[in-house]
Amino acid sequence: MIVLYSSAPVQKLVGIVEVDEVIVASPTSLWKACVENGGGLTREELRTYFAGKSKGVAILLGSVHLAAKQIAPSDVFDDFVPPQSFRYLTVKEYLKIQRKVASKKGLK
Fold this sequence. Notes:
There is one protein chain. By secondary structure, the chain is α+β, with helices and mostly antiparallel strands. Helices cover 29% and strands 32% of the residues. The protein has 3 helices and 3 strands. It is elongated. The protein starts with a strand and ends in a 5-residue tail after the last helix.
């Protein structure tokens, strides 16, 4: 699972997305996965991003569940600093988010 954080101006946790698959492969194979699954970048963007790399990682996303009410990060984290790209959550943090989403009448 991936928790979605919306940056400015929203600055809240807005939902959860399921991970269907993680692919570790060559950039060429990753491009094929993008074509087959509707990836959100061009072939040139992918090549530039993985320039000089023999392997890369792609995360295929599944169902997206938007929170019925967005969650302020301060309701979950003591000293929240927005991540530059991603950060790992502890089990305790994830469960706290999951409880808050459930207490707000679930996900949309």
